[in-house]
Design a protein that fits this description.
2 strands, mainly alpha, two-stranded antiparallel sheet
Length: 402
Amino acid sequence: MQGPGAQGGAAAVSLAVRLPSRLQSCESRVSFRPARPRGWTARRGNPSRPEMPLAEGLWAPLSRDGLRGRCLFLGLALAAHAGGDTAPAAPPDPAGVDAAVKKGVKWLRDEQDPAGGFGTGPGETALALLALRHSGVPAMDPACERAATRLARLLPDGTVYGAALGTLALLEQGGHPKEVERLVQDLVRGQCRNGQWTYAYRNTATKRGGDNSNTQLASLALAVARARRIAVPDETFARLDAFLVGSQNADGGFGYSYNQRCSSYASMTAGGAMMLALCGAKDRAEVKRAFAWLARDFDPANNRGAADAFGKGKGRRGNNFWKHYWLWSLERACGAAGVKDLEGRDWYALGARHLLDRQKEDGGWRDPEQPLQATCFALLFLNRATVRALTPAPVTTTPGGR
């Protein structure tokens, strides 16, 4: 794997933190009841997948000027397809985003099982609870309370995904300090010798290294815990930072691990950018190089580089691999580093347009991930969850108290 020696061209990224106005009154949102039997009670095999609409009506009888205009439009469209959407993106309509979030929340509610869980284990239950809370569903809502109670019973489960997502979800839910502190301690103890994390944290401390998928969620959970005044040793982030600086590819990006799928691809590079920003100064050279990679040929619809990283052998993937996860990785990176745009392109506007155009009639998202995962990732992106999660909670005081 290439080291950090070659600097490459650093992109001009704008640094600013924006908290959307729609998040300022999250707790006031109403709850939504399931509209019809579906989800957990009606799940049978694979869900139906409606065909995607095809483009139509591009060509029609034209004058010479009209033909020139259509040719210009087609040229811009081909350029966008080849190298990402280069046209300035209009800000998404807040009402449209709110409507999409409400539909997504309604879909998630239908997926909760009678015991309060979601999906197949505590990791997916935590992910769903996190998405509900960041979508404005109050902590006292029965869906959130049941999910949190279920998590407290199932965790720890011995996995980094469970501990990291459980920490994030229970911190957002509130009211489970002992459970959160235990999960944080488990993550700290489970760090690999090289600064990464891998799947089973009970074994990671004895392993040489892990992967950047588990590592980005573990580091985010610890950073959010630290922002909420839970003790996390500085050494934990120092070891992670040393690994990131030493393993960043020459092109500025990141791969899956130090010893497999090492070439850069979008979701891992976004995770690397986020982790670098969490470990140190947001405007340092390594962070800029990672965002320069993300800005090149930026396309919210494609996890760029995934096909090359996985190769042509067993387990090969296309660039749409974990597409919704890639968008949440992008949101986490830009939220942690305070990045407003990528070389003049509004990453949020482009990503939100992509998600709103592809939301299913039932309110969920799917393909290539399973519907539960894809819907949670989409909601976390649309709600710009990371800025809120990393913003320290205000200190409340009472008369005569502290």
